[in-house]
């Protein structure tokens, strides 16, 4: 499995006077240099940004207390909606120099928020430990990971915030605060509200996070029909620690990727002999202009992008690509045995628009089987509208979180996450704009319409628009950031500040 290239992700440079900052808050002066920040899909950017990278907690505190401008903390800048990107005249803080493990004992790691998940996993593995939850990529910072309530898959595994025991945050109003899960009363309420804070309360310096012993997974990948997927969904959710389904629009093809911890096994073969990508390569050789040797060297994501790019907005063409993709998945069934960190990261394709919805599937009055019903309704809407929807639509699950702002809020619930996608297969601005219009128009409207009936909330890193009522969040924000310094254009659009 290949990791997503992040070469276009944010490259943050320090432009302030680091040594002076460490000693004296008055010297937290912006340099004349400036940066352009761009997210991974090239869908959001922020120009002429001065980025400060404090290298100690005291320089971080000095930076916040010495400036009266807006302040926005940017992690790896990966969020599809550019969630962290500052507006102009904002002090942009990046913690790439606050990236170490401060303590590790009793299966709790205390880590600076600027460390990437990848680097944290490497360090933890030296003590035979790992994170209890992993997303499909690991290039994000720990701060960005928690602030958006990122999730992996498995009904017993909450989003990352469910494993945070405490955190230290530098706020504009109160300076440094430390909040813990063991706090009581109002302090505990602050912990739950500020934990998934979307950068709106200040800059988190560090987290204490529960970790678990390293484990290997035996992963089985196979294809079901839609009817079989619906019939077996409950069983598969319960039988596997991690399980995701990938539904291919217009095809009776649901890919199941399911894994359990295992101590090593012989790997039986399920797929066909030969190259599983052959149906996609054949179609590209027939229809594309590419050199056939070049086509043979392409991976799955690249093949899909090249194929779609031939006529990306033509539903009839996209159906043909999806049919070739479905044949690939059938050919590619089988077992893999590897570490959790290798198998739970997965290739999610090239530059893309995504919208991911989260809804409760048990408790809270929602009937069992809501997750299967949601998928059938969504596919029915997409297919009857004739949308050029490529594969796959990803369906994952998680346990709940006590964090008020997590889309999976509710410690007793089980939650389902569904991600719709359209790939930005070209650099041609006109076609990219048309893809964007289709995705942010009809595609997203259909998803949100279906989601409404299930009380669905949108993943914070994948919400482009729409206002949200968040009274408690706003009250606490006004308390710790009375001058409203930690917002950006996105928070203005969504929360009104
Ligand atoms: C290819 C791809 C695959 C993805 N897969 C998944 C997935 O499987 N599951 C999932 O849930 N998400 C997924 N995401 C979303 C991704 O996990 C989040 O966008 C990511 O966690 C953001 O991390 P970041 O370091 O890039 O933060 P940024 O995008 O830079 O920031 C995100 C938010 O966190 C805030 N923030 C960051 N650091 C701090 C800090 N120290 N203090 C205060 N606020 C802070 C920012 O202000 C902003 O509000 C994926 C994204 C991409 C591009």
UniProtKB/TrEMBL annotation:
Residues 44-214 form the FAD-binding PCMH-type domain. Signal peptide: none annotated. It comes from the Eukaryota. Residues 35-46 have a biased composition (Polar residues). Residues 25-34 have a biased composition (Low complexity). GO terms for cellular component: membrane. Residues 24-46 are annotated as: Disordered. GO terms for molecular function: D-arabinono-1,4-lactone oxidase activity; FAD binding. PROSITE patterns: FAD_PCMH. InterPro entries: ALO_C (IPR007173), FAD-bd_PCMH (IPR016166), FAD-bd_PCMH-like_sf (IPR036318), FAD-bd_PCMH_sub1 (IPR016167), FAD-bd_PCMH_sub2 (IPR016169), FAD_lactone_oxidase-like (IPR010031), Oxid_FAD_bind_N (IPR006094). Keywords: Oxidoreductase. This is FAD-binding PCMH-type domain-containing protein. It comes from Triparma laevis f. longispina.
């Amino acid at each position: 499995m290949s990791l997503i290239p992040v070469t276009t992700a944010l490259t943050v440079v320090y432009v302030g006077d680091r040594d002076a900052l460490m000693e004296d808050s008055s010297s937290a002066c912006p340099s004349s240099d400036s940066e352009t920040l761009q997210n991974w899909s090239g869908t959001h950017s922020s120009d002429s940004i001065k980025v400060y990278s404090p290298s100690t907690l005291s320089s971080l505190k000095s930076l916040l207390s010495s400036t009266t401008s807006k302040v926005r903390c940017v992690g790896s800048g990966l969020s599809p909606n550019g969630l962290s990107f500052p507006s102009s005249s904002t002090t942009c803080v990046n913690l790439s120099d606050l990236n170490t493990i401060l303590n590790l004992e009793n299966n709790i790691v205390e880590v600076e928020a600027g460390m990437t998940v990848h680097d944290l996993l490497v360090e933890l593995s030296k003590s035979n430990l790992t994170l209890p939850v992993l997303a499909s990529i690991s290039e994000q910072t720990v701060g960005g990971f928690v602030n958006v309530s990122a999730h992996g898959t498995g009904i017993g595994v909450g989003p990352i915030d469910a494993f945070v025991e405490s955190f230290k945050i530098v706020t504009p109003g109160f300076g440094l605060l430390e909040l813990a899960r063991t706090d009581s009363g109002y302090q505990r309420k602050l912990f739950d509200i500020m934990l998934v804070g979307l950068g709106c309360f200040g800059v988190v310096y560090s987290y204490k996070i529960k970790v678990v012993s390293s484990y290997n997974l035996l992963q089985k990948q196979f294809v079901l029909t839609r009817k079989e997927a619906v019939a077996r969904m409950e069983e598969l959710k319960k039988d596997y620690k991690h399980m995701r389904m990938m539904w291919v629009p217009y095809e009776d093809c649901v890919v199941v990727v399911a894994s359990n911890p295992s101590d090593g096994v012989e790997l039986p073969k399920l797929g066909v002999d030969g190259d599983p990508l052959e149906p996609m390569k054949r179609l590209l050789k027939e229809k594309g202009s590419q050199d056939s040797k070049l086509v043979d060297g392409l991976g799955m994501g690249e093949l899909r992008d090249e194929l779609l790019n031939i006529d990306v907005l033509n539903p009839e063409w996209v159906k043909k690509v999806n049919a070739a993709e479905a044949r690939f998945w059938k050919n590619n069934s089988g077992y893999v045995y590897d570490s959790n960190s290798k198998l739970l990261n997965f290739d999610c394709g090239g530059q893309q628009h995504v919208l991911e919805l989260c809804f409760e599937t048990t408790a809270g009055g929602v009937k069992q089987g809501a997750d299967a019903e949601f998928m059938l309704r969504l596919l029915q809407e997409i297919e009857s509208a004739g949308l050029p929807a490529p594969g796959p639509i990803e369906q994952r699950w998680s346990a709940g979180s006590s964090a008020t702002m997590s889309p999976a809020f509710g410690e007793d619930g089980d939650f389902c996450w569904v991600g719709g996608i359209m790939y930005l297969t070209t650099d041609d601005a006109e076609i990219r704009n048309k893809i964007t219009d289709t995705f942010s128009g009809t595609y997203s409207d259909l998803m949100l319409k279906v989601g409404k009936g299930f009380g669905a909330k949108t993943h914070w890193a994948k919400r482009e628009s729409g206002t949200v009522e968040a009274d408690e969040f706003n009250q606490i924000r006004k308390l710790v950031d009375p001058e409203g310094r930690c917002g950006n254009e996105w928070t203005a659009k969504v929360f009104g500040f």
